[in-house]
Design a protein that fits this description.
single chain; 324 residues; alpha/beta; D-Maltodextrin-Binding Protein, domain 2; 2 domains; six-stranded mixed sheet; three-stranded antiparallel sheet; globular; binds pyroglutamic acid
Length: 324
């Protein structure tokens, strides 16, 4: 071989080898909740587990608190590849496909055990739907059960008439309509601000968001209604996933399964811990009165009927799988 050619081919070989060794993929993962929230902490650990398992080949950067995309925009960003992966609140996508939001229906699945059963019923359908949309489900973790935060004591749903009600999803807006409150959609990242400026004066969410957004600074009562447990799902763009080599894909799937198990346990613990924090900050925590509970259950029944009418046979199949 000619000397110069030899040098060139050696150089090319070296480049190929070093390229292989340092080939690093970077993913952006937008999320909508603060970095200290248990979902975000769990996600950060997921990213770090993937980093370790792949010896730095896949770097996932978490963009918490809606810093890259606002909550309702994250799904489309992942679908379009503007972000390789993302965390979404499934209940936000009921208009797109009702099954996504089955976990946002009051009193369909209102405990961790029921929530897991519902997830198992939703999961195969969601995986199929996401695949059609060019995405994959990595894992999902529920928020703690949703209760009502209020400025004033509540004895029944009638006490909610006319109040400015913060909604985070179509179903939380629908609740407001059904009890005669005024729905205003405000995502978690803007909730403290909306309360401080009087844009909203009540809402349904978890103890976790109550603590994240310091709801006790504005609202004095928490009714532990335990109405539903909406899930956050971590999704990934299928092309981005397919572009990984097999060992890296396996590492992502394994870390995701671990994050799911860890996340469900963390959610239960956060539920207990945050009730104590709300109390320590002067909130009155109480179970709903029998009337308030009955009123909310009625709202739930109406919403499940409406959901089923929209979701059709597919929705019925999901309900059957959930209830069997
Ligand atoms: N926190 C989120 C969604 C459900 C929850 O508990 C929020 O309030 O936006």
């Amino acid at each position: 071989m000619h000397r110069r050619t030899l040098h060139l081919s050696l150089l090319a070989g070296l480049l190929a080898v070093s390229g292989f060794v340092s080939a690093q993929t970077k993913w952006d993962l937008p999320a909508a909740y603060p970095a200290t929230n248990f979902h975000s902490v769990n996600l950060a650990q997921f990213a770090s587990d993937v980093d370790k398992a792949t010896a730095g080949k896949l770097k996932i950067t978490l963009h918490a608190n809606a810093s890259l995309f606002k909550a309702p925009e994250i799904k489309r960003a992942v679908q379009g590849g503007q972000a390789q992966a993302g965390e979404i609140l499934l209940a936000n996508f009921s208009n797109e496909w009702p099954i996504y939001a089955a976990d946002g229906l009051p009193f369909l699945a209102d405990s961790y055990d029921e929530s897991m059963k519902l997830y198992k019923a939703q999961k195969p359908m969601m995986e199929k739907k996401l695949a059609e949309q060019g995405m994959m489900l990595l894992y999902a973790v529920p928020w703690p059960p949703q209760g009502i935060y209020s400025k004033k004591p509540l004895n029944s749903a009638a006490d909610l008439k006319g109040i400015k009600w913060r909604a985070y999803s179509p179903s939380t807006s629908r609740i407001a309509e059904l009890v005669g409150a005024q729905p205003v959609t405000v995502q978690a990242a803007e909730l403290s601000q909306a309360l401080a400026t009087g844009v909203v004066e009540s809402n349904m969410t978890s103890g976790a968001t109550g603590v994240d957004s310091k709801l006790y600074e504005h609202l004095k009562f928490y009714y532990d209604v335990q109405a539903w447990l909406p899930k956050n799902a971590i999704i990934v763009n299928k092309k981005a996933f397919d572009a990984l080599d097999k060992p890296t894909q396996d590492a992502v799937v394994k870390a995701a399964a671990e994050a799911e198990t860890r996340g469900w346990a963390a959610s239960r613990k956060v539920n207990t811990d945050t009730m104590a924090v709300l109390k320590a900050n002067g909130m009155t925590i109480a179970p709903p009165s029998a009337q308030l509970k009955a009123d909310m259950q009625k709202v739930g029944e109406t919403m499940i009927k409406e959901w089923l009418a929209k979701a059709g046979p597919e929705g019925q199949a999901m309900l059957d799988a959930f209830r069997k």
